[in-house]
Input
Amino acid sequence: MKQFWKTGLALLVLVGLALYIWRFEWGQEIPSDETKETILAVDKDKVTGISIESEGEETIRLVKVDDAWRVAAPFEAPADSSAVDSILTRVEKLEADEAVVETTDDLAQYGLEAPSRTVSIMVEGQEAPLVVEFGDTSPGGSAIYARTPSSPRIFVVASYVESSFEKKPFDLRDRDILHVKRGDVRTLEVEGPEGDYSLARTDAGDWAFTKPLATRAGRWSVDGLLGTLENLRMESVAAEPAESLKPYGLDRPRRSVHLVLSDGTTRTLEIGSPASEEDEGKYYAREKGSSVVAVVPGAVVTDLEKGMGELRAKKLLEVATYDTESFDVTAGDTTWTYVKSTAKGDDGFDKTQWKRTSPDEADLETTTVEDALFDLGGVEIVEFLDDPADLASYGLEAPLLRVDVHAKGDSWVELGQKAEDYFARRTADAAVLKLDPAKTTELIKALEALRGPPPEAAEE
Output
């Protein structure tokens, strides 16, 4: 216990010494929320312009035009709204940790005679801008000296406050290539050395190929490609405006992606040759019709190089149990119908119940039915037969069974068997599908388990 008190006393002495040095040797107050002072307060919705002058850098000017921000200097281009909003959020309430001096004739000792950075804010209804100047780093390195020319006081502000204005002109320009949201895309057409293909979104929200043949696409695979296009940003500008597209391989683009959106507008991405050695792994690209040639990450080309095969639906049927309201299974002359209902349980929460309604009625274990639907969605396709022979070659002239699923949109599959191999056909697909035999066997067993006893056994 005695040793504990000695240690505690030593710690108190060290803390007190540190506070003394901070306050009296460095002339700094201990920052706290209570000592913070607002040195600039702005309604960001009324800001019409921003100027950032940094030592040794080009002056950046941003202007608001018809509720949209633009870079006005050192070049003209649309601005990145999120980057501008970040600056506006900072100036909306700019706080100082404390005032160092009330007035001084020696701005140089604070690095404010020739500020390292000056931020000017133009506000609607005010002729003169609001200005904040930043100087040297204070002792300790965690704060920056700052002032407003309208006041003789010198403040210290946290270093991160000043660094929020540490921007390059390119940081503030709009780098979005296509300005598209994946959920707005209705059709997608790709041209490239891997082959041309087109896709369209169905009424149920799924995707299907329309060219070179009608076949189903994998929802998540297409969504991944659309996500790459949605998030495509230029990493640098190769030419603006481009006097010639030929040096960038854009006079005859090697790849192009054409999108039609829900409002009827279109976007076309053109991708040219690989960028220069200093941008290894990247490509020249532009939105069709734009005078700006950009350098973009190689990820978009990597995705497109995988071709149509990467986007095909490689599972027999994409089934979401929560969306499925009912389904029918037909084998021979008999059809079994399964219907889902929802009711409040004793605990007050919704409870899902599945019932077989035809050819007889029976309540079923929810997990058993959902497991069967899971198996249906889990059957893998091992080969696409895009130019199939007659159905008899695959045992599909008289299918083993047919499954009709009723969810947001209706879909169906038919299973056939030839020797040891299993094959299938499905909704909106011109191809015959060769299936994984083990997964298909599991599915057949799971569906048979839902049927109940055969009619003969029920009569006995």
